[in-house]
DNA sequence: GCCTCCCGCCATGTC
DNA sequence: GACATGGCGGGAGGC
């Protein structure tokens, strides 16, 4: 396979070719060049130049050698950085052009307004500088890390072609963006924490884009649960108090590398992923991270941590993974960030690009949003043949909801996290929200299509193994995270018992013979009162019920009725399906995937979490080395990353 | 007055 | 010793 290696230099060459004909506007641009150069002279830190001496050239031909910068040539062409980026993006490829167009079209309104405002300010500032350069320095906003990160991201495609190897020279980027390299480190470190880039050599990174983002987040989510972060963050966010007692990590260190921005970024993201509300306050995050490091919780440590979290948050905001909310308290503002990135990723489609980036999807708008339309449908898990039902407290009756195209199993209370999970949409106009919902539903259908297929395959595999697999039951649902959090985070039911649970069954091909167990009566002590606390719901009954359902209310893209499936709805702790999708399993009273754990009185399938301490011990290596992902970087063990100056880990990304 | 976060010093580690 | 990396906190702009 031919590998195309694109660097910023290539992009600049492309731009140069296009430069002469249409972009070389005389006058104003050259004036801007002069202005910027003058500005650069003023703002370039003299100490950096004198101390390091490596900012002496601007030649782009020396990609792997630290260029020397001539201050007067810091901006080798007449463009503003913004103009540069637009040109580069447009020139590089139709894909990038489309992406830029998409950015413009789908950029969240708030960001768009901000960007326009900032661009105007940028242009204005350049003009001002022509006449009054001493007083018209760029504002802090124009120099913000978030804006810088947006410019950085605009240089590269979200989903680069697999045949392309896009190299990033830190010096080129720094020169192009007219910032110190130090700032680029800040951005790159966060991007690296999410595997958007990986370091390939000194001063060099490889751009991966978002192609690995979902997988990375999946790993982070898993690791977060293993680390017991869900207990930490949910407890904190609920009580909003710093007890300072729940030191979650036995693996602590105050070593320099453990304070790396990369590690901190990963931890920060992990908190979002396991937070019930998918919101994290900087306060909570800072305190949790301070605890982890066993740093003395001095005020200065806290302030430093918050500073870094602001840096990280700005980059994540630019990535449209989080957005800032503002929680007003009596004592001033309280910065809160909400996760708006992908949720509910699971193994099967981890590699599938999910373009959430240009359309801000609040956590509430993620897969669960449609269920908010009905207050009785907070959390949904697709039920598949062979899937074992998680343990459901028997004291909470299950209900069958016939007025929907879905068969629902419900137990327990309304999910708190879900019930409060749609703040962004509340701020939208009706039409906007409708459009958003429609788009979300379309996305849902697509995801569902993928997930169901893979889940069926997974289930069949499970069946062949003849036993229920925790991994299958956990990973099966695109929304399993929400369920998990309800199971383990909110209720604190570490034993894995669900405090509430919904199950639905779409009429998906291959599920026609699916059957469910339904509670046949009360249970005692979490165990069924009768040996088989279930009763069969004849398929025709279900079908007729489904046929009367209102699709207008809940049209999720599923068929309006369930076909001749036989269902047994299960209450109590019984995750037992009476049949499987395969006709081979008809009549098999035991779960399709083998022995029910309840049959032996064992706890439910969901094994995690263990205690934080145990989890930490069990996954100690996760943060052992900065940037190392056990599952993402298989060669990580062979690498030893330093802290200040990392050793070159060329090719470590090939693990993926 | 507090929030936010830019800026750059300088420690650490690699070559 | 030179250089890459990046932790860190002062301090100022912004709200």
Automatic annotation (TrEMBL):
Q: Where is the composition biased (Acidic residues)?
A: 120-132
* Biased amino acid composition, Basic and acidic residues: 31-42
Residue limits of the E2F/DP family winged-helix DNA-binding domain? 140-209, 256-341
> One biological-process term from Gene Ontology?
negative regulation of DNA-templated transcription
A single Gene Ontology CC annotation of this entry is: RNA polymerase II transcription regulator complex
UniProt KW Transcription regulation keyword: yes
Q: Please classify the protein's predominant subcellular localization into one broad category.
A: nucleus
Give the Pfam families listed for this entry.
Answer: WHD_E2F_TDP
Q: Spell out the residue ranges making up region: Disordered.
A: 21-49, 120-140, 418-477, 580-611, 624-656
Which keywords label this protein?
Activator, Cell cycle, DNA-binding, Nucleus, Repressor, Transcription, Transcription regulation
Checking Gene3D superfamilies in the record gives: Winged helix-like DNA-binding domain superfamily/Winged helix DNA-binding domain
Instruction: Recall the GO molecular function terms of this protein's record.
Output: DNA-binding transcription factor activity, RNA polymerase II-specific; RNA polymerase II cis-regulatory region sequence-specific DNA binding
What subcellular compartments does it reside in? Nucleus
Q: SMART domains attached here?
A: E2F_TDP (SM01372)
Compositional bias segments (type: Polar residues) = 460-471
Where composition is biased (Low complexity), the residues are 602-611
- Say what the protein does: Atypical E2F transcription factor that participates in various processes such as angiogenesis and polyploidization of specialized cells. Mainly acts as a transcription repressor that binds DNA independently of DP proteins and specifically recognizes the E2 recognition site 5'-TTTC[CG]CGC-3'. Directly represses transcription of classical E2F transcription factors such as e2f1. Acts as a regulator of S-phase by recognizing and binding the E2-related site 5'-TTCCCGCC-3' and mediating repression of G1/S-regulated genes.
Q: Which family does it belong to?
A: Belongs to the E2F/DP family.
Q: Matching PANTHER family, A to Z?
A: TRANSCRIPTION FACTOR E2F, TRANSCRIPTION FACTOR E2F7
Protein name, UniProt field? Transcription factor E2F7
């Amino acid at each position: 396979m031919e590998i195309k290696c694109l660097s910023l230099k290539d992009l600049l060459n492309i731009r140069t070719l296009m430069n002469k004909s249409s972009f070389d506007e005389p006058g104003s641009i050259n004036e801007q060049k002069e202005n910027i150069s003058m500005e650069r002279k003023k703002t370039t830190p003299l100490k950096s130049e004198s101390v390091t001496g490596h900012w002496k050239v601007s030649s782009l031909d020396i990609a792997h050698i630290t260029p020397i910068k001539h201050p007067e040539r810091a901006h080798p062409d007449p463009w503003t950085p913004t103009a540069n980026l637009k040109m580069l993006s447009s020139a590089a490829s139709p894909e990038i052009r489309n992406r830029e167009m998409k950015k413009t079209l789908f950029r969240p309104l708030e960001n768009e307004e901000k960007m326009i405002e900032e661009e105007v300010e940028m242009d204005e500032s350049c003009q001002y500088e022509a006449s009054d350069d001493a007083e018209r320095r760029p504002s802090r906003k124009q120099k913000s890390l978030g804006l810088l990160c947006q410019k950085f991201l605009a240089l590269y495609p979200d989903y680069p072609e697999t045949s392309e190897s896009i190299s990033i020279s830190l010096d080129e980027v720094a020169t192009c963006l007219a910032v110190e390299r130090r700032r680029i480190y800040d951005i790159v470190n966060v991007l690296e924490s999410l595997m958007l880039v990986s370091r390939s050599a000194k001063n060099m990174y490889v751009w991966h884009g978002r192609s690995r983002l979902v997988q990375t987040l999946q790993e982070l989510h898993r690791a977060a649960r293993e680390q017991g972060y869900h207990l930490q963050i949910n407890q904190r966010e609920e009580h909003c108090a710093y007890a300072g007692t729940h030191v979650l990590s036995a693996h602590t260190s105050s070593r320099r590398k453990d304070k790396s921005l990369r590690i901190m970024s990963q931890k920060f993201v992990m908190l979002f992923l396991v937070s019930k509300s998918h919101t994290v306050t900087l306060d909570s995050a800072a305190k949790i991270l301070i605890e982890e490091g066993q740093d003395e919780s001095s005020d200065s440590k806290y302030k430093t941590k918050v500073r870094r979290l602001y840096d990280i948050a700005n980059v994540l905001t630019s990535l449209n993974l989080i957005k800032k909310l503002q929680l007003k308290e009596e004592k001033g503002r309280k910065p809160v960030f909400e996760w708006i990135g992908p949720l509910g990723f699971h193994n099967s489609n981890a590699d599938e690009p999910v373009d959430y980036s240009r359309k801000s999807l609040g956590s509430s708008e993620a897969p669960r949003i449609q269920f908010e339309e009905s207050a009785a449908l907070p959390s949904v898990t697709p039920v598949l043949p062979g899937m074992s039902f998680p343990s459901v407290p028997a004291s909470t009756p299950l209900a069958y909801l016939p007025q929907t195209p879905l068969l629902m199993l419900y137990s327990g209370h309304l999910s708190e996290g879900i019930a409060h999970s749609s703040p962004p949409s509340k701020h939208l106009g009706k039409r906007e929200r409708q459009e958003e919902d429609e788009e979300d539903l379309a996305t849902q259908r697509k995801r569902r299509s993928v997930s169901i297929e893979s889940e069926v395959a997974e289930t069949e595999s499970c069946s062949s193994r003849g036993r229920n697999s925790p991994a299958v039951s956990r990973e099966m649902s695109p929304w399993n995270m929400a369920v998990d959090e309800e199971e383990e985070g909110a209720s604190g039911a570490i034993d894995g018992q669900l405090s509430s649970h919904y199950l639905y069954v779409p009429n998906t091909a291959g599920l026609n013979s699916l059957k469910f167990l339904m509670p046949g009566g009360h249970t005692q002590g979490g165990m069924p009162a009768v040996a088989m606390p279930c009763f069969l719901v004849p398929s025709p009954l279900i079908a007729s019920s489904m046929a009367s359902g209102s699709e207008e209310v809940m049209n999720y893209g599923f068929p309006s009725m369930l076909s001749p499936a036989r269902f047994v709805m299960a209450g109590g702790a019984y995750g037992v399906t009476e049949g499987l999708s395969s006709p081979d399993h008809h009549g098999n009273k035991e779960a399709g995937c083998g022995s029910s754990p309840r049959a032996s009185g064992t706890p439910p399938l969901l094994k995690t979490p263990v205690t934080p301490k145990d989890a930490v011990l069990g996954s100690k290596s996760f943060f052992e080395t900065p940037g190392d992902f056990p599952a993402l970087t298989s060669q990580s063990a062979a690498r030893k990353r330093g802290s200040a100056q990392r050793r070159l880990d060329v090719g470590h990304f090939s693990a993926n």
